[in-house]
Amino acid sequence: MKKRKRIVLIAHDNRKEQLLEWARWNKKLLGDHELFGTGTTGGIISRELGLDVHRFKSGPLGGDQQVGSKISDGDIDVMIFFWDPMSAQPHDVDVKALLRLAVVYNIPVACNRSSADFIISSPLLQEEYDRKIDDFAAVLIEP
């Protein structure tokens, strides 16, 4: 059974063109899903490809935290995040927190074109998937 996934698209400034190129190549597949994006990235994808993208704020202005909140609420299934490994970001701590939440809530994350290609072409993207989430309560110190 086909299952629409909730996919968030994020790219640092030096990687926006690469994400746009990848999204253009995968426009039909992306159009089958519910898309989200941080401010500028979501706007570019929407404007250039005519896809409906629910937009958060720009990453440095709180968009990364908004995405993280959606992940922790179970409202994001996949994150495509073309981050720039060669440039320091003023919001690096937000990026690290976002990636940490993606791991905690066990969602697939693509950080480059190759991993994004593997995710977008996976048959699991088209069907129901029971994501297993670790119980971290045992490692948290309770008062």
Automatic annotation (TrEMBL):
Record function comment: Catalyzes the formation of methylglyoxal from dihydroxyacetone phosphate.
InterPro entries: Methylgl_synth, Methylglyoxal_synth_AS, MGS-like_dom, MGS-like_dom_sf
Keywords of this entry: Lyase
Catalytic activity as recorded in UniProt: dihydroxyacetone phosphate = methylglyoxal + phosphate
Pfam families, sorted: MGS
Name of encoding gene: mgsA
A GO molecular-function descriptor: methylglyoxal synthase activity
Gene Ontology biological process terms from the UniProt entry: methylglyoxal biosynthetic process
The protein's name: Methylglyoxal synthase
Residue ranges of every copy of the MGS-like domain listed in the record: 1-143
